[in-house]
Write a structure and sequence with these properties.
By secondary structure, this protein is of the alpha+beta class. Among the domains are: 155 residues, FAD/NAD(P)-binding domain; 103 residues, no CATH class. It has eleven helices and 23 strands. Strands 1, 2, 9, 10, 11, 12, 22 and 23 form an eight-stranded mixed sheet that branches. A four-stranded mixed sheet has the order 6-7-5-15, sandwiched between helices. The longest helix is centred in the last third of the chain and has 21 residues.
């Protein structure tokens, strides 16, 4: 039996940032973090684009808008202070035609309300900032969007917690025994408060505590493809997103080393860790995910049918490349290389309303707090989001 004050499930950036925030505020608290893999950042936290978002996509009343602007600043400062790789390249958002200008203006409004440093620019100014970007009439320039190496950042946070937080690897949550004890594959752990930041399995763990029953997670696969000429562009180039769904469309991302890649896809996956081939296949998950995806497909909730067709077409290399080429003036399609490491986005679905949940979702049980929807920009927001979680837990413990 292990006894601890705070038990955190999941060693991604959210779990580690919460552990860090707790330790900063309450160094005497006994904090234990369990991670089912042999190291940190094996899933979304280590497989994402590493882009630090500025915070202008999100409606001002959302948790995302509340945490992204501050999160960007905190994580940028953290990387600079600790000499971690960061490419402060900035980003432009471009419009394809007149119809998309409305969304450009809407994003500018959101950015202004959220306090983001954001510039509405014309084509002449765009030419100065990113000569190869193509836009209709107007574009947005975000100077505070940058890119980091996600694994390096998460690894560094974990290293700083050594000796302060008890981090147990290969330790998998199996079941909740009662309101303050759980079983793992090797231990029983008794806690005063549990924080569930288990990413792809957060809903499953929450359900064991009777929390978040109306939700399930639907996995979406994100693929990037490399472009073998780092002189193509010097800023991230994004299209105007469809503001009704949570995906940002295929875009150009610069990496920390200045390399260029396009992506990601948002292809519906068939089980939670459906990265490649049949690795990590789980029949129960397959049947459950298929059930909800079929339901979404037949009811065509939030245009799921056209989204699915559109995304599956991106498995065709040429089609995928085509999605990016209209964002730039000049490109050599022969310079596209291989697909890079795939990631899975754990996207929460409201089963009652049959719609994807756009914002972060946090729910509380008697002695537990569950981070149910930590989708993009959770990486960017991790430090500010973890302050909010710790505030909430402190209130719960005081009561």
């Amino acid at each position: 039996m292990i006894t601890t004050d705070i038990l955190i499930v999941g060693g991604g950036i959210i779990g580690l940032s919460i552990a860090r925030e707790f330790n900063n505020r309450h160094p005497d608290l006994k904090i234990t973090l369990i991670e089912k893999e042999a190291t940190v950042a094996c899933h979304a936290s280590g497989r994402n684009s590493g882009v630090l978002h500025a915070g202008f996509y999100y409606t001002p009343d959302s948790l995302k808008s509340r945490f992204t602007v501050e999160g960007n600043k905190l994580l940028t400062d953290y990387c600079l202070k600790n000499n971690l790789s960061i490419n402060r390249c900035g980003k432009v958002v471009v419009a394809k035609d007149e119809k998309e200008l409305d969304s450009i203006f809407e994003l500018k409004r959101r950015g202004d309300t959220n306090g983001v440093d954001l510039e509405l620019i014309d084509e002449k100014r765009l030419e100065e900032i990113e000569p190869n970007a193509r836009s209709f009439d107007k574009a947005l320039y975000s100077p505070t969007t940058s890119v980091v190496n996600p694994k390096e950042v998460v690894g560094h946070i974990a290293d700083t917690l050594k000796g302060k937080v008890n981090i147990l690897f290969n330790e998998k949550f199996i079941k909740s025994d009662d309101t303050n004890t759980i079983s793992t594959n090797t231990h029983k752990i008794k806690f005063k408060h549990l924080i569930n930041s288990a990413g792809l399995y957060a809903d499953k763990i929450a359900h064991q505590f009777g929390i978040g029953q109306k939700y399930t997670l639907i996995p979406f696969k994100g693929l990037y493809m490399e472009y073998k000429d780092s002189n193509l562009i010097h800023k991230h180039i994004y299209p105007v997103p469809n503001l009704k769904n949570p995906f940002l469309g295929v875009h150009f991302t610069i990496t920390i080393s200045g390399k260029v890649k396009i992506g990601p896809t948002a292809i519906p996956a068939f089980w939670r860790e459906n990265y490649e081939g049949v690795s990590n296949f789980n029949l129960n998950e397959f049947l459950e995910v298929l059930f909800y995806e079929a339901k979404l497909f037949f009811t065509n909730a939030f245009n799921f049918r056209s989204l699915t067709f559109e995304e599956f077409k991106k498995y065709y290399r040429n089609y995928f490349i085509q999605q990016a080429t209209h964002l730039v003036k000049k490109i050599d399609i022969n310079k596209f290389g291989n697909y890079l490491t795939p990631g899975i986005r754990a996207q929460l679905l409201d089963k009652k309303q049959m719609k994807l949940v756009m914002d972060f979702v946090v729910e509380h049980g008697e002695n537990s707090t569950h981070v149910l929807n930590a989708v993009s920009p959770a990486f960017t927001s991790a430090f500010s989001f973890s302050k909010f979680i710790v505030d909430e837990v402190e209130k719960a413990i005081d009561h």
